[in-house]
Every structure is written in C-alpha cells, then in structure tokens.
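Below is how a single chain appears once it has passed through the pipeline. First comes the sequence as given, then the structure the pipeline wrote out for it. We keep one example in the README because the format questions we get most often are answered faster by looking than by reading.
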Amino acid sequence: MGGGFGGKETRTAFVAAACAAAAYKVNAPVRLALRRDVDMGTTGGRHPFVVKYTAAARRDGEGVPKLAALKAQLYSNGGAFLDLSGPVMDRALLHLDNCYRWPAFSARGVVCRTHTPPNTAFRGFGGPQGLIACEHILEHLATELRVPPDALREANMYAEGDALPFGQVLCAGEWRVPRAWRELREGAEVEARREAAAAFNAAHRWRKRGVAMLPTKFGINFTAKFMNQGGALVHVYTDGTVLITHGGTEMGQGLHTKVCQVAAKAFGVPLSACHVAESASDKVANSIPTAASASTDLYGMATLDACRKILKRLEPVRNKLGPGASLAELALTAWLDRIDLSAHGFFSISDERCGFDWAIQPGKHADGTPDQTTRGHPFNYFTQGCAVAEVEVDVLTGDHAVLRADVLLDLGSSINPALDVGQIEGAFVQGAGWTTTEELIWGDEQHPWVRPQGKLLNSGPGGYKLPAFNDAPRTFNVRLLSGADNPVAVHSSKAVGEPPFFLGASVFFAARAARGRTPQSRPPHPHARAGGGRCATRCARRAPRTSPTPPTRTSRCTRPPRASGSGWRAPTRSPRPPSAARPGPPASSPRAPSERGFSRAGGGGAGDSMPPGRAGPG
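Resulting structure:
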C-alpha cells in the first residue's frame, strides 16, 4: 500500500467505483492502475491555506515582550468536493496556538470550494498548516518588537496548568516543551552555532548560513469521537506461539512489530513467537482508518486487552504448574482442560479524553469570556518536541543544503526506539520538502501559460521536486526525551507518525534566517501590533534568496530568477509566458522568492494575491 495518507483513506473510492462498474459490466476481474500524472491531477493533496491575522504583544519594562492577542481567519482550498476538508480545518484551528499562550485568542476557518481536485488527508492533517502560520506570526511580532524570535518564543510558552484556547488544560507532568527547548538549546549548542554562522556570513558574499529552532505540540486523537476505538483478535497455540489480527494496516510504519511486542511482553515469550495476520474484516469487523498517528495506541491496547483475558483464564493452570511454566506448557494443559485460548480485545479512549463537538455552543466564564470546555476534550495527550536546523544557501541560485539538524522528541516510554527514530527522520525530511522544494502549479491567473485553467502543470517527478538523499541533513541527530511517561497510552508510549513532520519547517526558517533580514529601521513600539498580516502555507516552495542578483544580472532582468538546485525548478519544456503577463518587481527592489505568500515585517497584506475561486496553489 505504501504511505498513501489520504490516497488510501478516501481517494480510492472513485477508482474502486470505476473498477466495480467495469467488472460488473464484463463479469470479470478488473484492475486499474493510474499513471502518475493522472494520479496527481485527480486525487488531490495537502490543503493549501491562507491565513489573515491581527496579532499583538506588549512590552512591560525591560523584559521580553508578552503576547497579548491573536485574531486569525483561516482559508483552505478544499477543491471541488468536500472530502476531508472539514476535519482538516478543525485540526488546523486546534493547532494554531502551537506552544504559546495567547491571553486573547480568536480563530475562524473557512473551507473554499474551488475548481481543483478535492484535497484530502496528508501527514499532519491540517496541523502543520496551523503550526507554521503561528510561527510566522511569532517572527512577524519579533521583527516589529526588535527582539530575537527565540527569546519571544521561550518567554511565551505555555506552563503547566495553563488552559489552551479550546479549554483543555495542560496538567502537571504532561507539559514538557519548555524542558525539551532548554535541553536541545544547550545540547545542540545553538548560540555557538549562530555565532559561527554570523562569522561565516561576514566572510562569504554569495553563500549564507542560518540557524532556526522550533517547538511543536501535536494532539493525538481522532477529532471525531466515534473513531477513537479499535479491536484485536488473539490466538494462543499449544506450541506457545501467538497469532494476532487487529484492525490496523501495516504500511511500513512498524505497527505490526509494535503490536507483536505488546503481545510478547504480555505472555513473556520471545518476539519471534508472535505473528500478525493481515487485517481482514472477517477477523476484526468495523475497523477505522489507520490514521491520526493513533493506531499503536488503539490496537496496542486492544491487543493487550485480549492478552489479559487469555492470561486470566490461564491463572488456574499457572497455579497448578507453577510460576516457571512456559507459555507452551500452559497452553497445552489449558487446551486439554478445555480452556478457550482465543480472545477478542477492544479499546476505546474514555469520554473524558476525546470528543470535541463544534456544534455545541461554548459556555461562559464568570468574566464573560467563552468557556470551550462545554464542547468536549479534543485530545488524549500531546506529542511534543523541538528541532534545530542549520542551512547554507547559495544566494545566486537559491540552492540550499541542510548542514545539520537536531531533533528532541517526547515519545514517553518508547515501545521500539529504532522504529520511532526512523519515523522522526522520515517525517523531518518530508516536512523540509513541504516547505522548501515542493510546489504544485495550476493553471490560473498567475500562470496563464498553463492551459486549460485548473490543469496541473508539474504532475510528475520532472517538475514536482520531492526531497532526495541530497536534501537530507548531512549531520542528523535524533534523541528521545528521557524520564518521560504517558499513563494514558499502551506501555506509557506516545504516537510518532505525524508529530515530527512540522519540525522539518525549521529548515525553512533557517533558510530565512540565512537571508539576514534586519528589523524595521523605526524604533520599536512598546506595544507592537502586527496588523493586516497574511501568510500562506505554500510558503517557501522555493529556497529563499538572501540578496539580489549581481548588477550585471539585474540590469538585464526585471525579475529575480527562481530558485533551482535541490529546490524547485521551472519545467524546461513549458512555454514562456509573454513578458506582459509576468511584470515582476523592479530591479531596484527585488523580492526573495521565499516571501511569496508572506507579509513583510512592517505589516499590511503582502505576498501573492489569490485569484478568484482559489485559495492558493499549495
């Protein structure tokens, strides 16, 4: 199956329907395999977002300013049909605060219907779009206030006991982002590397380096309450082997391995004695999609429930044979005594830790502010962590290289650290590709040479640039936070599939830092307001530039060239548009490609204006 994300969850329906209709007509099996260009042009992808916001912070004394308020309007390109755009927007709204406390917070989401194929689920499911918008807003405020972005981030992080905008409280012992931030900043020597990058930039005119550090928290649960359930079927054989069938599917993420580890630990047998049969609805009925990073939580607990049922039946046999009896001896004796050695396990997250109903009107606190707790509890827990990226950018071509990346993630007590580290590495590189090299180009008013309108231009690897081996960090350090637990999940572990994805955006922010953008020349206002801002989550589809091209180039070209190298590159075979259709900025004030879709530090709407009927090409 592969990591199909939304391609496996919902966008198989129209292909399956076509096959079913053909098979019924010819009364024979039918197989349909889409070409890559047809697949990319019809199945949709991650939702592009545009975020319009007004944010404020206040400076009290000489300390680091404190965030005061955020009002944001989120727009997503849902495509021609709804698909999963509703819950994707839900998760984006629930992650717009990231790790920061906004005393006044208001956010509203709108799914836009457009003429593109319906967009669908992808790793993060709307969370990364909300998170990257929040980080852009933080940097915008830091520029207005003339303070280092990291100082603003650290001074405004949540503390234990704080309530999130949707009412959920960060209980004692559960909030570890500040600790991870401090440990990573010291362990990765962030300040020393920033000084070294500054010295490198002073010595090199056309190659620049930047360092960026980001935190993240990612809520684990299906936002639809009914989906937070899972089942498993466990058989114990008389030779001491165990066969497990559960409702999840294996797509390379290691779910089967972790489920086997849960069963092996429960029965006290080697991992080699446990086996998983492929998922089938005649074994575990009514299973939910393997998604939301929750499969190990659900199916691991369901498997443990089935194992405990069998172990309870085996207690009289163990008492008879003694504590040293092997599982094979126990199973054979139980079978001879006509004791059932099969059990169905089931697990559902408690009502107190899942389910957020947007249809319920919020209550009122004593001071008149909305009480969101009446709507429910959206997340069981949060997977948290931080990342630091160091990037070198060629300012002439936009080519960039990730010199080093350090990731520290809180995964509780990991069931399989090797699998989890692999998931973190893959998610980080995937997130870096999302923010630096990947861009879909559709026929629209901004790209009039793509005909007809609504057609996808780069519908294959020739134009759509996925991150490759050369885009992975040259030095990649991944560490799991020690001394962490999670009492609400199987064996105190935490989900790992989606949470690290956003940390790859640290590559983008490091590339922005390499540009050496300075704050506004005007003095900082004691109460800064970043008004009229606008950002798009298709940001940095190209690697950023740090300076205009040399005079010999700008004298002959009215538009800075697009980034190339490991970044996005315009297809060589597409016809060039007429010069009147692409006016570009004047040579005296060239604009870095990475700033498309972002407001400049001074506020006011900026970036590419979205054409009518579209929310951005994403």
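The chain is about 30% helix and 20% strand.

See the next section for the split statistics.
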